[in-house]
Amino acid sequence: MNKIKTIRKAHLIGMLTLLLLCSCVPTQHAVKEANTTVPDQYLDKTTDSVNSATIQWKTFFSDPKLVALIDTALANNQELNIMLQQIAMANNEVQVRKGEYLPFVNVYAGAEVEKVGEYTRNGAVEQHLDIREGEEFPEPLTDFSVGLDVSWELDVWKKLRNGKKAAVLEYLSTIEGKNFMITTIVSEIANSYYELLALDNQLNIIEQNLEIQKNALEMVKLQKQAARATQLAVRRFEAEVYKNQSNKFEIRQEIVETENKINFLLGRYPQKIDRDSDDFINRPIDTIEAGIPAQLLANRPDIKQAEYELEASKLNVKIAKANFYPSIGIKAGIGLQAFKTKYLTSTPESLLYSLVGDVVSPLINRNAIKAEYRNANSRQLQAVFEYEKAILNGYIEVANTLSNINNLKENYELKEKQVDAMTEAIDLSIQLFRSARAEYTEVLLTQREALDSKIEIIETKRDQFLANVKIYQALGGGWN
Predict the structure, then answer these.
(1) 135 has which bridge partners?
(2) What is the pTM of this model?
(3) pLDDT tens profile 2-25
C-alpha cells in the first residue's frame, strides 16, 4: 500500500512540475495577418482577366535570334546555376529535417583490451575468479561486443515536424527565387538586345547624316570660292562633321559594351551578337493584356516567394515556443558482449539489452530561449511586411509601366511628325542657302535638329520595346 502511495506521489510531483514549466512559457501576441487586398483594376483599365503573363517567353518574343539568346542564357548563366545549387541544398535540408523526427538506429561493433593492477579491487577479484571449471579469467582482459542501439525523440510538441514543414516551405521559396531570377535574366537579355538594335540604328542615322553634312560642306566650299560664303561658314560645317564622326566612335563603344553585357549573361566570352537591326523602326509593338491586380499574387515569383517565407516564419515561431516544453526521449539497445569471441553466441549469458526513457526540460537560465522566441516573433512580423511590400511593389510597377506604355505611344506618334518635318526642312534650308535666302547657321541648325529628332525617335521606339518587356516581367511573365 505504501509503495502504491509513493508511486502516486511521484506521478503527482511530475505532473505539477510539468504544469509549472508549461505555465512559464511566454504568451504569444496575436499573429499579424498580411493584408493581401489589392484594387480591383489598374487605374482606368477594365477588369478583363486576360493576362499576358501566362504567355511563355518563347511565344512572347517573336524575334528568333532573341529567343536563341535567352535559351542559351537559361542553360549557361552562372547566377542561375548558383541558384540551382541553392535549391538542391534546400531540398537536402528537407531530408535532414525529416530524418530528425524518425528513430535513429545504429549498429556497433567493438573490441577492447584492458590490464588492471593485481593489488586493486578489480585485479584481486580477477585473480581468484574462474569462469568455468579449469578455465581462469583471461589476463589481460579482452572485451568484444556487437549490437544495435536506438534513440528516438518523441515529437510531442510537433517541434520536429514543424521544422520539416518549415524546411519544405524554404525549399519552395528557393524555387520561386529561381523563377524570379529567370524573369530577371529574360528581361535583361531582351532589354540589352533592343538597346543593341537601337544603337545600330543610331549609328546608321549618324552615317546617313554625315553624308548630308559632307555634301553641305562641299557646297559651302563652292560658295566660298564664289565669294558667297566665308571661311567661318566652312569651318563651322567642318566642325559639325568632326563632331558627328566622333559620335560614331562613342556609339561603337556602347555597342561593344552592350554586346559583352549579353555575352556575360550567356556565360561566354565576348563575341559578336547575331541580330537583325534593319527593320527596327518599323517593328510593331505588341499589345499587352494586364489582367486584374489579384493575379499578381499567383503570377509573380517574388510575391509567392515572400508568401512561402511568411508561412515558414509562422512555423518557426511554433518551433521556438516548443523549446520551452520538455523533450521526451527513448533509448534502447540490444547486443552481445563477451571477453572471447567464441562466447559471443552463447546466449543468454552474452546477451545484453537496455531501455531508457528520459524527460529533459529547461528550468533555470532560460533567457536564451526567451530571446530566440522573441526573435522568431519579430522575424514573423518582418515576413508579413515583406509580403505586403512585395504585393504593393508589384502593383505599382504594373501601374507605372502601363502609364508609360500609353505615354510612349503618344510620344512616338508626335516624334514621327517631327522627323518628317525636319527631314523636309533640311532640303528647304539647303535650297534657300543656295539662293542666298538663308544663312549657313540655319542650315547647320536644321541639320543638327534633324539628327537629334531621328536619334530621339529611335530612343522612343527602344523605350516602347523596353516598356513591353518591363510590363511582361511586372505581371509575372517570363519564368514559365
Answers:
(1) 132
(2) 0.85
(3) 545 554 555 545 554 554 555 466
